[in-house]
């Protein structure tokens, strides 16, 4: 129900839209059609390359020339000559007794000094309570402790010392160079190459050119919808914007599969020459196998043994401690002082004599070393080798040189084009105004064409039918629709395709007769528009099925 409502609403909107442009004051029994402004086409010429450009190749052979080539037959070398060493005499001193030291004892010194010692401390006396005294003893250092140094003398011994009277040196001896011969390979002849031309190759192909572009036009349905509520069925007509397919022309063309090329082959291949390089010659050359060199022979040094006094242990000192000297004396000490008025009693002192002794020390005295002068022979200049150059030798050989290798000269062969005329849409047509037409233009007219089962090929009888009924109508300049139908037997998709091929077969025949393709619309409806009850699943006679297998045409508009 909902689907029917939506469909009715769409029809109402479409009817209202078309109704806005309906002709005014129409007369009963008259038919009207919307005038279609035709599409305007113009012919353009398009060039199709039917044969591509390619190259033709021509071989220019290699050229050679003979030249003289100077090669080295003996390499340069050198000989060596000995320059002897030079010697001289120089003096040197050897210490036979090393420098040392000895210690001299510095004795201690005594001195006398006096020191005042309080034998009775100062006090005071009281008139009331006298002081209490007692006698005490204490020690006084009369000689402080000190140290006495005892010298331990150095220890010496005599040793044998080896001295060099003549330094080690060298003498040089020449080892002569060794010479030999070698076989030298040189390029006696150069080889070029040969060139083989491979011509261009082509493949056959086809190129499709669109000579008429795709277009479209408005078409009105023949039958109104079943649910049309208007008393005038034309109010509910379907308007379809039907597409007109493009038309193509197929042209046979050539494609360049491979352009002309060349294959270069060397005139001499080492693989075919026993594995040896091509064009090589040999000659003998004197070479230095081992260059001249020198050998160093060492000359040992000359030595002499002498006696030498060496201090093994240096002199040292030993310290001896001397204790201090003490003396015991007595003195009177106040134990309890008076507690009343005191009377000062001065202290009583006694002078004591003491001896002060300083520590013993040592003083270092240097003992100089004893040296002796000797003479020795020294090498002032080492032996050397002087190089004597040997000049190289050359010889002349004849060789064949490649002046210019083989080459290829290319010639361009231009492409070949074919001109094809195609229609190009320059101005698009469209619906404009209503126009009165003959009512028969709105109805379908049958073409008496009997198609073979499953075939879309026109028979001679079918072509005569088209020539008699349809071709004169199109020659007046009108546009027509070719409609083809099938019965319900078979699938819907196969019937649709079969009817479309049959309608297109009629269209192709008319185009071959000179009718402009823009004036023809071909539609295949399959089994969608059956004229009777013979739908899928319904048993019908062959006569009833034949009524549904039909091809028709109708005029879409009048000529302009």
UniProtKB/TrEMBL annotation:
Gene3D superfamilies recorded: OmpA-like domain
Signal sequence range: 1-19
OmpA-like domain ranges (all copies): 438-559
Entry keyword annotation includes Iron-sulfur: no
Record keyword Cell cycle present: no
Main location class: membrane
SUPFAM superfamilies on file: OmpA-like
Location of this chain's protein in the cell: Cell outer membrane
Key words of the record: Cell outer membrane, Membrane, Signal
PANTHER family, sorted: LIPOPROTEIN YIAD-RELATED, STATOR ELEMENT OF FLAGELLAR MOTOR COMPLEX
Name of protein: OmpA family protein
Organism: Kordia aestuariivivens
């Amino acid at each position: 129900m909902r689907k029917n409502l939506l469909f009715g609403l769409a029809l109402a909107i479409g009817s209202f839209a078309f109704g806005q442009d309906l002709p005014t004051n129409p007369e009963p029994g008259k038919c009207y059609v919307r005038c279609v402004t035709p599409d305007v086409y113009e012919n353009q010429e398009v060039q199709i390359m039917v044969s591509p450009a390619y190259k033709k190749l021509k071989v220019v052979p290699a050229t050679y020339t003979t030249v003289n080539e100077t090669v080295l037959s003996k390499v340069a070398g050198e000989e060596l000559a000995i320059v002897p060493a030079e010697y001289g005499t120089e003096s040197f001193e050897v210490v036979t007794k090393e420098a040392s030291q000895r210690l001299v004892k510095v004795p201690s010194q005594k001195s006398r000094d006096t020191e005042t010692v309080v034998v009775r401390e100062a006090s005071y006396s009281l008139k009331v309570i006298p002081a209490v005294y007692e006698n005490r003893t204490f020690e006084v250092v009369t000689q402080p402790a000190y140290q006495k140094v005892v010298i331990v003398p150095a220890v010496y011994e005599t040793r044998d010392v080896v001295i060099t009277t003549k330094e080690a040196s060298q003498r040089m001896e020449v080892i002569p160079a060794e010479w030999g011969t070698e076989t030298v390979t040189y390029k006696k002849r150069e080889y070029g190459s040969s060139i083989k031309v491979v011509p261009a190759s082509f493949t056959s192909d086809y190129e499709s050119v669109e000579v008429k572009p795709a277009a479209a036009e408005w078409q009105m349905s023949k039958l109104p919808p079943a649910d049309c509520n208007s008393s005038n069925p034309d109010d509910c007509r379907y308007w379809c914007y039907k597409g007109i397919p493009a038309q193509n022309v197929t042209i046979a063309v050539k494609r360049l599969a491979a352009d002309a090329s060349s294959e270069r082959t060397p005139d001499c291949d080492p693989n075919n020459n026993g594995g040896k390089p091509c064009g090589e010659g040999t000659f003998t050359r004197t070479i230095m196998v081992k260059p001249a060199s020198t050998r160093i022979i060492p000359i040992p040094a000359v030595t002499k043994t002498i006696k030498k006094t060496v201090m093994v242990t240096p002199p040292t000192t030993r310290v001896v401690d001397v204790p201090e000297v003490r003396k015991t004396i007595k003195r009177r000490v106040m134990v309890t002082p008076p507690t009343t008025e005191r009377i000062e009693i001065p202290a009583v002192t006694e002078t004591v004599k003491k001896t002060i002794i300083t520590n013993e020390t040592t003083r270092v005295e240097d003992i100089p070393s004893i040296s002796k002068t000797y003479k020795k022979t020294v090498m002032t200049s080492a032996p050397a080798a002087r190089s004597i150059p040997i000049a190289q030798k050359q010889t002349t050989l004849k060789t064949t040189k490649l002046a210019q290798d083989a080459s290829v000269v290319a010639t361009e062969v231009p492409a070949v084009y074919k001109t094809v005329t195609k229609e190009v849409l320059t101005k698009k047509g469209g619906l404009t105004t209503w126009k009165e037409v003959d009512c028969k233009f709105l109805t379908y007219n049958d073409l008496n064409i009997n198609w073979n089962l499953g075939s879309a090929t026109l028979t001679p009888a079918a072509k005569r039918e088209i020539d008699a009924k349809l071709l004169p109508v199109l020659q007046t300049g009108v546009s027509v629709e070719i409609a083809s139908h099938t019965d319900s037997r078979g699938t819907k998709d196969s019937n649709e395709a079969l009817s479309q091929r049959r309608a297109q077969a009629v269209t192709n025949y008319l185009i071959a007769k000179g009718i402009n393709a823009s004036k023809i619309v071909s539609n295949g409806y399959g089994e969608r528009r059956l004229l009777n009850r013979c739908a899928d699943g319904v048993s019908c006679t062959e006569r009833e099925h034949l009524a549904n297998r039909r091809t028709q045409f109708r005029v879409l508009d009048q000529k302009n």
